[in-house]
Amino acid sequence: MPWTEPLADEDIELMAGYVLTACLVLTCALSGMRTSELAETEVGCRFRARTAPGGAARFRLASRVIKWHLFGGVPDEWVVIEEVDRDIALAERLVDRAAGEALFGNFALGGRLENLRSRLETTGNREWWGLPVIPDGPVNARMLRRTLAQAIAERPGGLLAAKVTLKHISVATTEGCAARPGGSQRLFLAEVEEAEEAEDEHHVRPTVQACDDFEKMVAERSRRGACRGLSDGQCRKNFHPGRPRRIPANTPDCEEPMNVADQ
Q1: Cα separation, 148 vs 166, whole angstroms
Q2: Could you give the CA distance from residue 228 to residue 248 in angstroms, rounded to a whole number?
Q3: Among 2, 117, 155, 206, which residue has the fewest nearby CB atoms (within 10 Å)?
């Protein structure tokens, strides 16, 4: 099945531009790079994949951090997933520029995404390719960056991980970036957190109760053992739930072995 109808030369150039927009959106959404940092990416910015302990591969991109630095910024690297690495490789093929030249350059993400959305719907290619509907509404790099921050911060130890990934100057900045908005969404998340706490309490309460019951039984056995001349340690040693132990026959005031569970 052909992936598209026959294209003229101009249509091929337009199609390459739309695919480059998709590459830009994906890189922005999954790398957490700022607009200024994406604008500084160059052809050849990908590093060779490095194998980490456990066999996982690490992919890195080179660019420059502009914010909070003097004019021109400072060189830095971003650890990304394999999909972003392949995405950048495709973008380099599409622009067909020499190494060291700007890959994306200055761009307006919202306008480019709106053109992509319109193109997919008017040509019918979205349904033809089986792509999901791109939601209406404005989209910019800040929104994608904050969405990524929230997704990372929700994981264990995610707040520090988000700070490192987004290259924030302070954890307080990350906390503000990862904070959920108010209104109905905040209320919904509060209900989810309350339900999770109730679920945790539901599982913890029986365990605590069983522990308390065990301690009470041991204390009672200790009290009875003291009356028979047994130490607390002997009582604990001879008490095993589910596997009763017998008290030695030479115990004071005991003419024959007794089963602790029968006392």
Answers
A1: 9
A2: 12
A3: 2
